[in-house]
Amino acid sequence: MAAKKKVVFLQLPQTDNDTGAAHENIFLAAFYLRWAAEQAGEGRHFEFLIPSRAEHQLALPSLAKRLAELCPDVLVGTLYLWNIESTLRLVRLARDRLPRLRIALGGPETAKHHPFLFRQALADAIAIGEGEGVFPAILRTFRGGPPPDFQNIAWRTGRSYCWGRHRPPRRPLAEVLPPPENEGWAPDENGVAYLEASRGCPMRCAYCRYGRLLGPVSRLPVAQVLSHTRVLANRGARLIRFIDPTFNQRANFDELLAGLREINRNRRMRFFAEINAESITARQAALLSEAGFLELEVGMQSRDPTVLRAIQRPTDLPRLAQGIRRLSAHRIRVTLDVMYGLPRQKVRDVRTSIRWALRKRNVRVQCLQTLLLPGTPLRARRRTMGLHADNRPPYAVHATPSMTTEDMRAIEQFLATHPRLNPDCPTRRFVGRQLPDLFAERVLLRWPDEWQNGPIPGRHIRRALFLRGENFYASRSQLARLVRQAIRQEPDTLWQFVLQPATEEPLDVLDTLIEEIRRHPLHLLDRYGAARLTNRVASRRVFVKARNRFSRDWIAAAEETLAAAFF
User: How far is 333 from 321, CA to CA, in rounded Å?
Assistant: First the structure.
């Protein structure tokens, strides 16, 4: 019997500057697809491998090297808004090392009229929407069979792609998910697990395509949801995140909550979900609390009926307020979503919506910039609506006919200065004897002796590069070359350049490095409003590790210089 071919799954994580939170990257897509392939008999021809979470945290050159060591025949990538650019760069690196590699891509970021996904023609197959029904057929094609003629698969033909004609198969969620006893149902090292109790969304919001992409909602029976929950609890889950877009949109919701309450009688677990608060009854609010839901997410987006109509989101605002009150009465914390940059929205509506929410007990406001995601009606109608947005992730709206860029900048400044509204993780200190925001990987170079234009050392995608030496001012042009090489060598890495001078240096050194960093294309983190609208850089930052003898005045001046340039 011929040796099995190797399939490697990739799902690059979301990277940010938060050094305190656990970074989740749970490979549900790979788990589902592997199960679908094995059930279809492809396990006789392929073996499946998911690199570890630690390997997924490697910088792209190191991860490409690791992939070459694994030597897969097929590479399967799950694309999200936050990883599509880095995944495509990694795919190119992998293909350079493994010319015969076959590549299949899918995930929430794939869309038929994507602004750049199809241009490089890197993937052999790109799937849109549910992958379980088509993935086995893709594997059969990769081992020599004819390509399936499905509407949601694009097959590479030279430098372009050809789409199929027929509807792909769709099975109920209960038949798609691996059974509860499957060993893949397990929490991560932080005790976090994801569970999908329904697939699809009953809403048709213009800024989202999920409800339109999948058709009617498919729900797991209550008994099956509870079976999965029991297994995850027995395997050590401390937090289960239900990933349904609207968790409470089912007729037997009370029965489900009562079952979760019974499983979690010892209160060892917490649950999290996104719900529609308009339909929450007083009994359901009590059951949510008793089951272990300490926090829920609720989408409001706006309190202006004109804006809500423009985004096709019908909302009964009085019932929404009643639902929030019921949840609050049971000490459930509500994260309430408000958006800015929506069609027909004015600054006044954003401020009114935020202030209304802040008056509610147990409510945390999450103010989000509108994104014109590929495949959404809002993106398709952006020109007629006069919406100006970036064509690269996160596709952030930066001007509308009713809201200027200056208006949006004012909103971000309002969020940054309000004690209850700052949602991001701004740097607490750039200069000092202690620097609380440094990454775990810390590479030390004695400056300038240990770097002579060679490769930048280190392996991880979040890296602090310490430069210890004297007279940085005299070698500031060489420092700029190091920064330039680091960013060009690893554009997706979050860089911290930490100077450790022996004595106080002229601040021109910092100005030189700031100028060099600003010359490079923006990283994904720098395109979000919190950084971009305030003209600061979040992804590549300069720090100074000060010595005891440095004066307070010098430290304050250096801190002011860096805080004005970096987020």
Answer: 14
